[in-house]
Amino acid sequence: METGTMISLAGYFIVMLGIGLYAFKKSTSDLSGYMLGGRNLHPAVVALSAGASDMSGWIMMGLPGAMFVSGFSSTWIAVGLVAGAWLNYFLVAPRLRVYTEKADDSITIPDYFANRFADNRNILRVISAVVIIIFFTIYTSSGVVAGGKLFESSFGLSYETGMYVTTGVVVLYTLFGGFLAVSLTDFVQGCIMFLALIVVPLVTYSLLDQPMPATLTEISPDMLSWLGAGSVLGIISALAWGLGYFGQPHIIVRFMSIRRVQDMPTARCIGMSWMIVAALGAVATGICGAAYAYEKGIAVEDPETIFLILSQVLFHPLVAGFLLAAILAAIMSTISSQLLVSSSSLTEDFYKTFVRREAGNKELVFVGRLSVIAVALCAIYLAYDRDSSILDLVSNAWAGFGAAFGPLIILSLYWKRMNLAGAIAGMVVGAATVLFWIYAPVTINGSSLSSIIYEIVPGFMMACVAIVVVSLITRHPDQEISDLYDEVEQSF
């Protein structure tokens, strides 16, 4: 590896660990500070933290890889995500910030569900915590896979070494700095990603020998088609990625941490501007990379490494190090967020609820740190399958959360008649439908269900139906729950 690249990456790691140390000194004295930053984050930090934790390795590797292979037909994924993110900021963010504070200062999503529906037997809390831990372990493993591929492709290290280095640095600053460290590092990482996703496609495009459409047509006529070789159901599946936003705990928990709800429009403006540029940059990287690799005869064995290849081929080692740091930023920002949310569920929703109700803040923070390590080790174990596709792992977890939590979050914020039975039914049906769609040995004309239409579509629809039907055929919510809903409604 070039000395300049090493210097850039070493500087990046030092900055991340330094932020973790700063956050450790500032905000980890109690569980609320460790898990939610004391609900006092600046809107810019919230916006870029939400964006960076959302746009994981898939924005730098997964989406460019899909564009490299399929052309413009994969752009629908970006379109769906941008639309979903905007609706999430508009529909979910303000109400969730108010509701979680009024609902007994809920600091986790399962905590909010339990308080919102007076789940005294903790049924909903346990189910939602199990869903978070299962799907986040899968989701986190996608970041570990991306880290392994990055170090193997760029640094000449083994895939396994890459996994441990990536996860090790993330665990260190998450372990000690908690939510504040995760949010501040996400802010810095979001800035790095933003610059990288502008620079790489612009430079690549400027170095093409002939107009890009002509080159793409030579690769395949489908590269320029918005439909590609797929179908209308394929476009619906791509757009449906946007539905997942409403149920992603590592994203919506950012909304709970903003210092006041009046700051939400500022956060939305910053966050959506960042996301639109990042999504366009990822799309352009894949398309321009396909044209450049074809023209120059560059063999690309793994399409998901096209950003890595362009960084190394086109730029000075110092700049290449910065660009590789951008990929690490994308990977690490999401891993840290997922580790923290999983840790918070294990601590708040299992340990405190069932093991030691009287546990003090120091004990809970300690358990939270142990949970970070445990989830990280499970993710590393799953990531040993080096053939795993980053985008496939992300899509499965994204659909699971989107279907299990999305309808539940939206209806809990806007429908007063929704009750505990409906919430449980919706979560179970949504998660079960997604798992069935992915793993059931059922085919249609030789094609698996998930290859026909993205599993989040049937999962989201079935969850909505289950919530509405079960809520209507069971008893009304208690008066206390209705009064809480009315109190939140009066805030808007």
What's the topology here?
Layout: H1 3-27, H2 31-36, H3 43-54, H4 57-70, H5 75-102, H6 109-116, H7 123-155, H8 159-206, H9 212-219, H10 232-239, H11 249-257, H12 264-296, H13 306-314, H14 317-355, H15 361-383, H16 390-414, H17 420-439, E1 443-444, E2 447-448, H18 449-452, H19 456-473, H20 479-489
Rg, Å, rounded: 22 Å
Q: Total number of β-strand segments?
A: 2
Distance between the termini: 56 Å
SSE order, one letter for each helix or strand: HHHHHHHHHHHHHHHHHEEHHH
Helix percent band: over 70%
Query: What's the CATH topology name?
Result: Sodium/glucose cotransporter
Subcellular location: Cell inner membrane; Cell membrane
Membrane topology: Multi-pass membrane protein
GO cellular component, one term: plasma membrane
Family: Belongs to the sodium:solute symporter (SSF) (TC 2.A.21) family.
Describe this structure in words.
Helix 3 packs across helix 8 (159-206), helix 5 packs across helix 20 (479-489) and helix 7 runs parallel beside helix 17. A hairpin with a 2-residue loop joins strand 1 and strand 2. This protein has helices at 3-27, 31-36, 43-54, 57-70, 75-102, 109-116, 123-155, 159-206, 212-219, 232-239, 249-257, 264-296, 306-314, 317-355, 361-383, 390-414, 420-439, 449-452, 456-473, 479-489; strands at residues 443-444, 447-448. It has 20 helices and two strands. The protein has a two-stranded antiparallel ribbon with strand order 1-2. The protein is globular. By secondary structure, the protein is an all-alpha fold. It has a single domain (3-390), classed as Sodium/glucose cotransporter (Up-down Bundle). The N and C termini lie far apart (56 Å).
